[in-house]
């Protein structure tokens, strides 16, 4: 597919360690597949424990030279990286669409969104302040300085192949940390193109290493057990997050976890119905429903339920499924055949237990891992869709009677990432926002993410925040210095 790019040298198939493109000692490769066609588009070096180890040691060495640069110099490198990502936006979007499946318009959007974290943390890197504390005795002074925590091990998913990386790598570099990244095996090309651009921006060797590989448990084990790695940052499933936290405990590493979500959208009968349908719809079907803050359960008050379902269904029927590179497509495939099977099973469970489909829910004939956008009504709490995260284009619409009931249903999950509500009542906005056990709440708005806000969850959706002024803290250690004999 390189011929569709204006700079085909952005397609890299080797790992990147200490400023060198490397293959594995075994010479093993793994396939990268276009989910819209099932075709193999690249074979990438399958690295493992040995290479991860080398990358960690290189990363540790590199930090010393990065520390010799002033904040302004480090900021300039990050800024240059941002500029290069944006000037290659179209190529990066095409690479992403080919390996991940999302339609080109969304891929362009993700490149810009991902780049915004680099720009933001380029700026924030100049704003790492310490503190001078009140004197505890007259002959002493107490100060606090902030220092980089150390080598960062990062593991990222396939649903946002660029943004999930820049959100971690940009603040790490801004804080002075080096990174060893294991990208998802489904989408290594975006990660490798990003590191190529970081190299062109002048990032010193060893500061950002990428270890693509199929054996995630082995690579993850090395990252979480190596004493030189001081922090592990992960975006992915709650199941894997718990494994990584347990492993990290052995060497008491700091962890940041962006795990699963089960976002509810609460639509009250005093809401602007057009806005509510539009907002819930956008939050549901972005990236073909494969987003951790996707509307997972749409809860609608009974008096407007039928009308809401009717309008929502009408919109869902407008989607044009197809390969993301075609400008006519408005929804791409799911990531794998397994993903399609998983989503189908959840739909079948709800239908077996008495829910009904108003549209979609089928697997079209032909190549690629497509699933027609489904809207399901008349669900109850016995169905798997009421509890489990559905990572696909399925909109389960539940009915509620009262505000209390809606809050109870919304909170009845171990997850707590994002929640949304639609109402015109000011006091209800506050009341419900405060009652929702979630890290982020959108009131009359579902496009809530940005590099300037703290993204993250509570409960089993994780810990730590990415983006915003708070995002840098996760990569910094505080040191108290007591100056005596003054
Ligand atoms: P998803 O459902 O998004 O694929 P996963 O949590 O399985 O969620 O995957 C997210 C990332 O975690 C991917 O990069 C994957 O390779 C990696 N991963 C999966 N299992 C493990 C593991 N046991 N240890 C470390 N990383 C893992």
UniProtKB/TrEMBL annotation:
Gene3D superfamilies: Aldehyde Dehydrogenase, Chain A, domain 1, Aldehyde Dehydrogenase, Chain A, domain 2. GO terms for molecular function: oxidoreductase activity. Its EC number is 1.2.1.-. PROSITE patterns: ALDEHYDE_DEHYDR_CYS, ALDEHYDE_DEHYDR_GLU. Keywords: Oxidoreductase. It comes from the Bacteria. It holds the Pfam family Aldedh. The keyword Oxidoreductase applies. Residues 21-481 form the Aldehyde dehydrogenase domain. The active site is at residue 258. It is an enzyme of class 1 (oxidoreductase). PANTHER family: SUCCINATE-SEMIALDEHYDE DEHYDROGENASE, MITOCHONDRIAL. Belongs to the aldehyde dehydrogenase family. This is NAD-dependent succinate-semialdehyde dehydrogenase.
């Amino acid at each position: 597919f390189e011929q569709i790019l204006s700079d085909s040298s952005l397609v890299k198939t080797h790992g990147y360690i200490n400023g060198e493109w490397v293959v594995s000692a075994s010479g093993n490769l793994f396939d990268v597949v276009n989910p819209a066609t099932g075709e193999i588009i690249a074979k990438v070096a399958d690295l493992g424990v040995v290479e991860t180890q080398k990358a960690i040691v290189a990363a540790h060495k590199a930090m010393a030279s990065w520390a010799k640069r002033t904040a302004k110099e480090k900021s300039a490198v990050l800024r240059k990286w941002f500029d290069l990502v944006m000037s290659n936006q179209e190529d990066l979007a095409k690479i992403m669409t080919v390996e991940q499946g999302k339609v080109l318009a969304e891929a362009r959007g993700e490149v810009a969104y991902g780049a915004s974290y680099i720009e933001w943390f380029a700026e924030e890197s100049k704003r790492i302040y310490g503190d001078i504390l009140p004197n505890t005795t007259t002959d002493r002074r107490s100060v606090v300085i902030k220092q980089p925590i150390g080598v960062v091990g990062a593991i990222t998913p396939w649903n946002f192949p660029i943004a999930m990386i820049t959100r971690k790598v940009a603040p790490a570099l801004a804080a002075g940390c080096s990174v060893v990244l294991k990208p998802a095996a489904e989408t290594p090309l975006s990660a490798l193109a990003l590191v190529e651009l970081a190299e062109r921006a002048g990032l010193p060797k060893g500061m950002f290493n990428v270890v693509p590989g199929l054996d995630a448990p082995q690579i993850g084990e090395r990252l979480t057990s190596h004493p030189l790695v001081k922090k592990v940052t992960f975006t992915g499933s709650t199941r894997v997050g718990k494994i990584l936290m347990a492993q990290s405990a052995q060497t008491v590493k700091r962890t940041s976890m962006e795990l699963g979500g089960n976002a509810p959208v609460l639509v009250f009968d005093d809401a602007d119905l057009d806005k509510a349908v539009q907002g819930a719809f956008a939050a549901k079907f972005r990236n073909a429903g494969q987003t951790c803050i996707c509307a997972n359960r749409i809860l609608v008050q009974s008096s407007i339920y039928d009308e809401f379902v009717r309008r929502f269904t009408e919109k869902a029927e407008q989607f044009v499924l197809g390969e993301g590179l075609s400008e006519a497509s408005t929804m791409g495939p799911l990531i794998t055949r397994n993903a399609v099977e998983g989503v189908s099973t959840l739909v079948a469970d709800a239908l077996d237990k008495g829910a009904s489909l108003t549209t979609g829910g089928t697997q079209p004939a032909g190549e690629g891992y497509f699933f027609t956008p489904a809207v399901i009504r008349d669900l109850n709490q016995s169905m798997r869709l009421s509890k489990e995260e559905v990572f696909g284009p399925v909109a389960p619409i539940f009915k509620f009677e009262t505000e209390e009931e809606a809050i109870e249903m919304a909170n009845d999950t171990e997850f707590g990432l994002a929640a949304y509500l639609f109402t015109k009542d000011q006091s209800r906005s506050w009341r419900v926002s405060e009652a929702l056990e979630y890290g982020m709440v959108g009131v009359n708005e579902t496009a809530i993410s940005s590099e300037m806000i703290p993204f993250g969850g509570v409960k089993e959706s994780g810990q730590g925040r990415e983006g915003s002024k708070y995002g840098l803290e996760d990569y910094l250690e505080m040191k108290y210095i007591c100056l005596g004999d003054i």
